[in-house]
Amino acid sequence: MLNMGNIPEHIRTSLKKFYKQNEKPDVFPSKFQINGEYYYYFTFAPAKEQLIMKEDGTVPYFHEIKREALIFNNYNISIESLIAVGGKWVKSDKRKNYEQLLNILKDLKKKLPTDLNSSYNSYVMTAEKILEEQSNIEMTVQKATEIWDRTNHEELATEQDQIDMRQCIVDLSRAAYRQNEIQLRTEKEREIIWNYVSSNKWSIGLGLYLNLKKYQKNMMKKTPENIREAEETGKMVLGEDLPLEKHENAAQVWKQLRNPR
């Protein structure tokens, strides 16, 4: 893994003229290889600018590395998102919770009248779909972690690594979107089951009623806030499918580049 202590001396020397005394330069943990060229990618905390430098210590002009800047930035942002968001989702109790919900629904089935079978099946399908997408989230985060670990170990990332990492973000966003969408789509059916259970809690069993109540309360409903969250996740999916230069942050990435113009 690259750091400021193990980069070549000529790189460190060349870098000095590009940052101020109160800034702390840092280097991306691996070099980037694009079209046979090798690049270092630097940041300068607390400033938000970045600098791209070639392996020989020369600093290309801005117009020469506009595309590379988007590739490097997207790779970095993808990693940050997967760690901050994907890692959090994997470590959540969602898998355990929805496995428990399926067990609750299994116990509930024999206590429901047959005319509620359609609504009941919809409730079960919702829990199963959330678990299916949770597995997709976990596999995606694992794949991204393997890419990150490998590039750090080899101290080299390629454009294909960026493409693969970006696809992980797309897959992660799609899985989260589908988890939200299925909850919003089946709210009515879940409400039918809940109304019956809450109206018959003594005959059904107070314990079963209380166990289901927790999930009924926490699952997404068509509130303005939840609809907005689902829409924002959907936009994230669509945005990640755009070419990098079409991303809404492309202009900002270029603006923050310290390479000479």
The SS-based structural class is: alpha+beta
Q: Main beta sheet, described?
A: 5 strands, mixed
Strand content: 5-15%
How many extended strands? Answer: 5
Radius of gyration: 25 Å
Which residue ranges are poorly predicted, with pLDDT under 50 across at least 5 consecutive positions?
A: none
Report on the structure:
- The structure is a single chain.
- It is built from 10 helices and 5 strands.
- It has 261 residues and is an alpha+beta fold.
- Strands 1, 2, 3, 4 and 5 form a 5-stranded mixed sheet that branches.
- α3 crosses α8.
- The relative contact order is 0.14.
Characteristic key phrases:
alpha+beta, five-stranded mixed β-sheet
Describe, in short, the structure shown.
The chain is α+β, with helices and mostly antiparallel strands and 261 residues long. Helix content is 64%, strand content 10%. The longest helix has 38 residues.
What is the element layout, followed by pairings?
Layout (H helix, E strand, L loop, with lengths): L8 H7 L8 E4 L3 E4 L2 E9 L4 E5 L11 H26 L2 H16 L7 H38 L1 E3 H27 L1 H13 L1 H4 L1 H13 L5 H17 L9 H6 L6
Parallel strand pairs: 2-5
Antiparallel strand pairs: 1-3, 2-3, 3-4
